[in-house]
Every structure is written in C-alpha cells, then in structure tokens.
Amino acid sequence: MKTLFAFFCKALDALTGLVAIAAGILLFVPVFSIFYEVVSRGLFNEPTEWATELSTYCVLMAGFLGMGEALARGRHIHVDMVISHLSKRKNLILRLVVSVICLVFTAVFCYTSAEMVYTSYDLDMVAASTLRMPLWIPQLSMPIGIGVLFLQFIRLFGETMQAYHQEVKGGKTV
C-alpha cells in the first residue's frame, strides 16, 4: 500500500509541476500584452481592444492552475492560532477532518466546473467582446486546477493518516 501511495505522490508531483509551469507561462502573457498595449497606445495612438481581456483571462487561469502547487508547497493561507496550541495527535486529527471537508468541496467544485465547461463548449458560448473568446477555453482551467487541488488533498489526507498511525504506534499521550 505504501508503494502505491509513493507512486501516486510521485505521479502527482509530475502532474502538479506541469500544471504549475502552464500557470507560470500564463502569467507572462499579461506582461507582454499590457506592454504591447502601452507602446501601441502611447507611441502610435492605437489602443488594442484585446489586451486587457486576454490579460484577465490569463491571470484567472493561472490562479486556478496554481492552486495545487500552492498546497503542495504549503503556501495556501492557513491560520495557526488554534493549531499551534494543540498536541500533535489533536493537530493530526484536525488536519484529517479539514482534509475530508476540502476533499468534498473540491470534488463538488471540480464536477460543477467541468459541467460548466461542457455546457459552454456544447452551446458554443463566446465572450461578449471583440475578442470573442470561446468561454470553455478559460473555464477549462477551473476543473483542471481544482482537480489537481483535489488530488493534493488526497495526498495530504494520506500523509496525515500515515503520521497519525505513527503517532498512535509511538504510544504518545494526548
């Protein structure tokens, strides 16, 4: 079982890394498009109609795609005011409970966002702008990013279960 979990973690690291690279690349697009907009507007008095919209899509997509990497690196927001005062065993139990809640939330979010992407694709929905971006393209970052986040919560749950079992085997008191 441990080797299966180790394989899962290794594969998840690779997947998370690829998705994080995509998020990083997406963050460069706004830099160049806004730079182009400034030069085009300032030097040639020819503003673009697409730069702001494209930048918005890319930043939002990068945010969703980067969530799994943030959790994997321990960079998500967390409040340790309570957990810093708990014993190790109680802290592990709390982490297990929170992991289960997060698993349920991310599973529902992933499913509903995938439905939204499918609906946008099926109905050929496009943005009501001059760019006319097919909406399923930026929306696709939601189920992908939340799906990776879901898998990271599975990992967190598994690692916490292992740590809890080690804590219990050690016979330490609460």
UniProtKB/TrEMBL annotation:
InterPro entries: DctQ, TRAP_DctQ
Listed GO biological process terms: C4-dicarboxylate transport
Domain Tripartite ATP-independent periplasmic transporters DctQ component: 32-157
Record flagged with keyword Manganese: no
Entry's localization field: Cell inner membrane
GO molecular function, one term: transmembrane transporter activity
Coiled coil feature spans: none
Top-rank taxon, per record: Bacteria
GO CC annotations, alphabetized: plasma membrane
Membrane-traversing stretches: 12-34, 54-72, 92-114, 134-154
Keywords: Cell inner membrane, Cell membrane, Membrane, Transmembrane, Transmembrane helix, Transport
Protein family membership: Belongs to the TRAP transporter small permease family.
Name of the protein described by the UniProt record: TRAP transporter small permease
Lineage: Bacteria, Bacillati, Bacillota, Negativicutes, Acidaminococcales
